Amino acid sequence: MGKNFNIIIVGAGMAGLCAANEAASLGAKVLVLEKEKEIGGSSLLSGRFMAFAETDLQKKEGIQDSSQLLIDDMLAVGEGKNEAHLVEAYGKSQLETYKWLVEKGVEFHAVRAASGHTVPRGHTITPLQAITTLYNQAIATGNVTVVVEAAVKRLRKNSDGRIQSVIYEKDGLEFVVKGEQGVILTSGGFSKSNEMLESFAPQLKNALRIGGNGNVGDGIKLAWEHGAWVRDLPYLQGTYGFHPTADGPRKSQAHAFYKGAIIVNKFGNRFVNESISYKLIGTEALKQPDNTSFQIWDQTIMNESVPGDALYDFDNLLQLGLIEKANSLKELAQLIDVPIEQLEKTIAKYNEDVSKGEDSEFGRKTLTHYFGKPKQINEAPFYAMRTTAAMLATYAGVAVNEQAQVLNPFNEPIDGLYAAGEIAGGFHGAGYMTGSSLGKAAIFGRIAAKSALAKLVTN
Questions:
Q1: CA 20 to 30 Å from 353, out of 208, 243, 262, 274?
Q2: Residue 457 predicted with pLDDT over 70
Q3: Domain identity same for 67 and 184
Q4: How do residues 19-62 score in pLDDT, each as one tens digit?
Q5: Which domain of life does this protein belong to (predicted)?
Q6: What is the 8-class DSSP label of residue 439?
């Protein structure tokens, strides 16, 4: 293998592989370094949603959406803490990227409504199919070399101050390679780094750790050494919806609350508006006594189970013994060890409010964000799932601009350094719209490649 390439990409998940394909299409010679044995990273553990608007799948279902509505939803869910110019760049490129992925062979199966959606826009994929397809497409160009079990240790600048050289280890040996046009970091976040989580998010000490094994923040440290600024660290939150037995490969996840379930603590009391971002719900759940909460729903909601869906396959979780089923609320309360009278009182109050069209306790008006109408919980049998928050992804990281250039504390680009995917901060702010993580990985992976290779293409 030669030592010089046009571009070096650190990380072979959704962002890295999209960057590699885009770079190869521009005629670049590309090296992708992946420290794990297998490609994919946290992208393989994702909830399978990608947020796109105005697609053929939406039109087929009669769903009216737009790039502007998608942008507005992301900013609303992020409570205005996200960088508007990054969200707008997402909106500008999202439909073209969806079509590009389809052309590459990525299969989209259905459209679902999920957290932060005014209308259904969660385009479901099978992560392994998507990652494998993008990998095969990249290799087939003849311009992309992928090296696994290659841990990047440091980045180095050339005499002009441009980041070009990458030092990595493989099989106990150290190698130095050069990316003439720069380096793209697509190495994920730090959901598996107890050190970094304790430093930046001590409030998440009770959250499960189920992110990709390689997500220990090493990519962020590579950028920090060269002056990178960071964004969104104050908004680090766990993802709500996981059964306590979830460990990553076993997702054991349900979002019945976005279908109409309520969430209660060990005392049978609601404590949150169930329609808000599951990141914000997770923050409130971790504050509950003994870190214990339950999703509660009835047969009407159970009938909306979607086989094979990452968030809505309730029947599968029931078969796995992770959901309790009872013919009465009294029996259900006994099964989950919640005070019977209080659970019945909570549900009676909720049902009364639903009938009046107003949630007097927490202001719930929809199923999720601005989509759907709450429904009463009154049709036996009844169901409950013990649920907690997990650190699946950190959604915070190095500062970037709309060209995916990494920025220093003065908002100046660090010459030769780009970032895309989970490692990049500023997109999500205080909340998170389902599907925007994989979406931004694909969109900004491509943008990073175009930016890095702009001069090569011009010449």
A1: 243
A2: no
A3: yes
A4: 999 999 999 999 999 999 999 998 988 778 999 999 999 999 99
A5: Bacteria
A6: H
